[in-house]
């Protein structure tokens, strides 16, 4: 029983590490297209198959890696990024009530793009010392729209098949372990 | 249904991006900033757009390398510009003179920007 628990924990740890890697690599690959990304889709997906704590670990690792790689290991960049991405697992486990309805999640992806952009505003205000809200809001709107549309489409088309495949794979490896360790 | 929703969101997104500048143009304005050094040579001449209520100080701080000090005059208070883009003043022997549309500005850099205005900053000796 204890061995099974260890294997299960190990498997989930490996999955969390892989999730953080996939998240980071896809974001770097898509940096050529401003705000077009699979990050929101993947975080919604990870929130649906991982626990809240595991998803937050993925986000924490992602923010650290992204900041190191982009050369901006800077609190005024990292803090809003961490808050912005954390909104996904927080919303998933609260207002979204762990739904797997792809349409609801796609609408959430659309809304999240704006929430994510707005989390940066107070930090940029403190950083620049300019406390005029309007320019920040206006300047970011086009990018929020692009991010929202890209999140909506990717979640609507890819969440269901990915969720099905990931859940099946996680259950299958659990089943394989049970079969392999079953006494004759 | 998915194809319809995808096309709808893409169309709405594209329309929003297309119409956004014109919808928000009421809040926009532009000003020209001119900076002259102690030899009366033009160092900077730029035109910048601004949104909503923006002060000249906000504009200068956003686009240029500036040095300033917070000061108080009696009941009032404000910011004094000491250097901008390498054009400096010691505030004893010379000062940075501000003009708005080629006439002496009665307000300092804390004034609200006016659409179409030309703000000129130059070095003047104290006489």
Could you walk me through the main structural features you see in this protein, from its secondary elements to its overall organization?
The complex is a heterodimer of chains A (184) and B (127). Chain A has 184 residues and is mostly helical. Chain A contains 6 helices and no strands. In chain A, helix 2 crosses helix 6 (133-180). The longest helix of chain A is centred in the C-terminal third of the chain and has 48 residues, at 133-180. Chain A is globular and about 65 Å long. The longest helix of chain B has 22 residues, at 2-23. Chain B is elongated and about 75 Å long. Chain B has one domain (29-125): Ferric Hydroxamate Uptake Protein, Chain A, domain 1, CATH 2.170.130. Chain B is 24% helix and 43% strand. Chain B is an alpha+beta fold. Chain B contains 2 helices and 8 strands, in the order αββαββββββ. The interface between A and B is medium-sized, with 20 and 20 residues.
Determine Rg of chain B (CA atoms, Å). Answer: 20 Å
Number of helical elements of chain A: 6
State mean pLDDT of chain B (0 to 100 scale).
85
Q: What is the fold-level CATH name, i.e. the topology of chain A?
A: Arp2/3 complex 21 kDa subunit ARPC3
H-E string of chain A:
HHHHHH
Question: Poorly predicted ranges of chain B (pLDDT <50, ≥5 residues)?
Answer: none
Shape call of chain B: elongated
User: How many beta-strand elements of chain A?
Assistant: 0
CATH classification class of chain A = Mainly Alpha
Strand content of chain B: 35-45%
Structural class, judged by helices and strands of chain B?
A: alpha+beta
The biggest beta sheet of chain B, please? 5 strands, mixed
Q: Write the CATH fold name of chain B.
A: Ferric Hydroxamate Uptake Protein, Chain A, domain 1
Largest interface: chains, residues each: A-B, 20 and 20 residues
Order of helices and strands of chain B: HEEHEEEEEE
Mean pLDDT of chain A: 88
């Amino acid at each position: 029983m204890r061995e099974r628990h260890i294997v299960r924990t190990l498997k989930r740890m490996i999955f969390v590490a892989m999730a953080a890697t996939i998240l980071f690599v896809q974001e770097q690959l898509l940096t050529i297209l401003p705000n077009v990304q699979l990050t929101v889709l993947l975080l919604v997906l990870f929130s649906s198959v991982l626990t809240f704590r595991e998803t937050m670990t993925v986000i924490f690792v992602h923010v650290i890696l992204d900041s190191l790689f982009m050369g901006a290991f800077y609190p005024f960049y990292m803090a809003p990024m961490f808050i912005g991405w954390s909104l996904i697992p927080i919303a998933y486990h609260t207002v979204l009530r762990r739904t797997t309805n792809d349409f609801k999640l796609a609408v959430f992806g659309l809304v999240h793009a704006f929430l994510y952009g707005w989390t940066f505003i107070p930090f940029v205000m403190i950083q620049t010392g300019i406390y005029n809200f309007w320019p920040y809001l206006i300047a970011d709107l086009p990018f929020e729209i692009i991010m929202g549309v890209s999140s909506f489409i990717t979640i609507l088309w890819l969440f269901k098949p990915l969720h099905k495949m990931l859940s099946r794979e996680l259950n299958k490896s659990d089943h394989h372990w049970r079969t392999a360790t079953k006494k004759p | 249904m998915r194809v319809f929703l995808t096309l709808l969101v893409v169309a709405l997104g594209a329309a929003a991006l297309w119409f956004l500048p014109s919808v928000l143009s009421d809040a926009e304005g532009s000003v020209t900033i001119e900076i002259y050094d102690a030899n009366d040579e033009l160092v900077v001449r730029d035109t910048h757009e601004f949104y909503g209520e923006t002060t000249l100080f906000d504009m200068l701080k956003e686009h240029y390398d500036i040095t300033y000090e917070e000061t108080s005059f009696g009941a009032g208070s404000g910011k004094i510009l000491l250097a901008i883009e390498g054009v400096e003043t010691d505030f004893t022997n010379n000062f940075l003179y501000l003009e708005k549309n080629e006439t002496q500005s009665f307000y300092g850099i804390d004034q609200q920007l006016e659409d179409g205005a030309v703000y000129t900053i130059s070095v003047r000796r104290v006489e």
